[in-house]
User: Fold Ribulokinase from Actinosynnema mirum.
Amino acid sequence: MANDPLVVGVDFGTLSGRAVVVRVSDGAELGTAVHEYRHGVLDRTTPGGRALPPEWALQVPQDYVDVLRNAIPAAIADAGVDAADVIGVGTDFTACTMVPVNAGGTPLCELPEFADHPHAFVKLWKHHAAQGQADRINRLAQERGESWLPRYGGLISSEWEFAKGLQILEEAPDVYAAIDHWVEAADWIVWQLTGTYVRNACTAGYKGIYQDGGYPSEEFLAALNPGFADFVSTKLEHPLGQLGDRAGGLSAEAAAWTGLTEGIAVSVGNVDAHVTAPAAQAVEPGQMVAIMGTSTCHVMNGDHLAEVPGMCGVVEGGIVPGLWGYEAGQSGVGDIFGWFVQHQVPASYHETARERGISTHELLTELAAEQKIGQHGLVALDWHSGNRSVLVDHELSGVVVGQTLATRAEDTYRALLEATAFGTRVIVDTFTDAGVPVTELVIAGGLLRNKLLMQIYADVTNLPLSVIGSEQGPALGSALHAAVAAGAYPDIRAAALAMGSLLKDVYRPIEANVQAYERLFTEYQELHDYFGRGANEVMHRLKAGRREALGEES
Assistant:
């Protein structure tokens, strides 16, 4: 090969897919392209107009294939390189995002008999309508003392594979019966690239309750629902591929879509957060990576196994070989800021921002940055999309306390920024108290561009904040895994050292701010426990009332 070898990483996010072309020798990002999903997130109606109940979030699988067809060729063109120099492709996905398919891998929503059936579409990670099933899984596991439950902080999420699968069985048994494979989107997209279905070890461990070589027993599943007894053996179980392994070669069909060379390496699927850790060179114990976008996923490595209350999971080798990979997260972060700007901010702010040629987010951030800590007189709970960690309850909802007639948009905006930082602080403290100390926060994702938000996080957590040296963290991480799958590096650690990028201690805690936020955090904690740990069930009652009202209307 005359030119330097290249790899392509593709990051499938909530609203779009992004491809990046990366040089194998040093991780230089040469070109990138984004393709928006045509259907976006389906949370009100199906493409055919069928109304969806509250807490639903679906997607159309063809949108993912369109990313391969459009973003990869566009990224190659943007880089100005020869596609023949690409030696591998790696992908990552949101998780837990599930695709119900037949034996050949065709999504059920593409079959005539299930066209426009809600349960036949992709269930996106933030589909929270299976909370009732998750509650039953947790109660039964606690009653039976299931050994796998502590590996997930004592609670299984409604976002994960088993709760979503059980929901289909109980609400659409005809769809459930037609499912031959209940597939993570991370694996389905690799299937489209290679023609081979390989289940990745990462999502199997974190989202599929795969621990110590096995899944929950048939006896346990039958106790949930007799029809669910063979869920693992008939729909879920499949040979596992390890992170960084070659899942297969690029198929002729996928080569035609992408313009890449047939047969080049395609790495085993992975999760957006988990691939980002090596891209940020955060592969040692104590380095917690927060990938901050619409939601935040927190991942870190540890040198021993510990039970952390409310964590999303701990998996041996779940991020890099030889260490225990821990995961936690917040279901809403950037989504909350976006919702507030879109639905709660007066028109005058939007007009001012347009006149100045900046976004409304930038305007609100400027105004909020002028305030002293506590000046707004507010404290908020960041539960607008429920709570992933450490309460694992998606029936919870957002709260802002302290509003008066003097409260302005920038006050509430800053309170919401601070609330998400407090949510991360709860996660950090919970890990540290459980014997998995956090010594450094490493930030990746689009929100790292907000300097006020980053300083708030440093002050609230009293930790130095390092930032990834790439704006395409997950895509770079996927490219890094592609390089390992192609044999350019012996393992993920070696590839991270050569191709990853980290800017150390960019934000440091300011002592006066740390003390001021400690007082506000105490108020947050009190509200957190009052609404989140059973003292007041009003949020659950309101969610139930909303479902009842909408059901009566329909």
Remarks:
- The domain at 334-416+511-550 is CATH 3.30.420.40 (Nucleotidyltransferase; domain 5).
- The mean pLDDT is 97.
